[in-house]
Each structure stands twice: as C-alpha cells, then as structure tokens.
Request: fold
Amino acid sequence: LAKTTQPISMDSYEGQEVNITCSHNNIATNDYITWYQQFPSQGPRFIIQGYKTKVTNEVASLFIPADRKSSTLSLPRVSLSDTAVYYCLVGEGGANNLFFGTGTRLTVIP
Amino acid sequence: EPEVTQTPSHQVTQMGQEVILRCVPISNHLYFYWYRQILGQKVEFLVSFYNNEISEKSEIFDDQFSVERPDGSNFTLKIRSTKLEDSAMYFCASILRPELNTEAFFGQGTRLTVV
Reply:
C-alpha cells in the first residue's frame, strides 16, 4: 500500500480557496487517489477520486501531476462548515485498501 | 441519497460483557466493512466481508471479534468480552463493487464505552 503524507493541520479564512497537498511517492500503477472528509463524531464521507490530471465535482477539485507522486485537493471558497479532517487515501480500490492516515485537520476561521 | 445506518448510536457496557453493534448497509452493495476510531486517533480497518465470509481482517480483529450477516439486510459486529481499550467509535461501511473504484459509504458510527 502506498504511504501518504499530509500536513497535520491548516487554517484558512472563510471565503478563501484551500489547497491540501498529499504526497504518495510509491503509488502503484493501478492505484487511485481518493479523498474523504470527516466531521467530529461522524463517519468519513467521500469527497472526490481521481487517477490522473484533474477531476472536478460539485464540492472540490483534485489535481494530480503527471508523475502521480502527489495530489492536491482544492476546496473553493471555504465556509465554517468545511472545518473537518481531510484524508488522502491511495489504493487499488475497495475499502480493503482504505487505510486512513492521520489526515489534515482544516480549521476555517470567520 | 442512500445511507448506511448503524444502531445503537451509543452503547455503554461493563468490561467483560458481550456487545453487538448493528449495521444496515446500502441495499445493493456487495462488500461490507467495520472500522474503529479511538478518540483522537485515526480510522482503523478491522474487517471486510463479502459473499457471507470474511475477505480480509486486520491484526486488531482477534478472536474476541466476529461478524455476521444474519439476514439480507443486517451486518453485525460482535465483541465477545469487552475490554476498556475497546472503547471507540465503530463505523460500518459498504461499497457496491470495489473493483470499480466506487466510493465507500460510511455510517454515522456507534460510540462504544466500556466501563
């Protein structure tokens, strides 16, 4: 399983764009990159998944460079309700490979 | 939106007692999982279940743990003789088909407190 490294915490003001970068130097050819969000006392919630280049959905964008050794989750115009822990996971698919690291604790400040 | 439901939301039990945590995965999903999260720590994989049998388990999932799908809708985690260190949030998750890299849906969790 590819090991991931993320910043432990980040702070941002409301309305700003937030970019959280994850390193995964030993990502395998078949691995996908998936980001989950977790609020206190709740289960993780899927945000976005990608394999290469850029993926965008209604809540976030995911940027993956050509070498795929890192990825960046971009949250546009964050609000206070985006305060949560964000996890980057790398694996071939399925929750068998959903091994969560320590994640990035994002705090949005008014 | 479909959701995974877990009951109870909070369970308090005495050390040494048996507990059963219940989950109803999303109806057409094929793979089911249990995770736990000790307060302030990361989410840890316990076990995965497919076609009525365990497909993978972690070192945490020792002989005191068992899982069962007693009927077509429920998926349970049993802890036979609880220890203080079993106190944690337990999350159930389900996936339609992992090989398609579809997303995992997690329940809201059961907070287990062993006293």
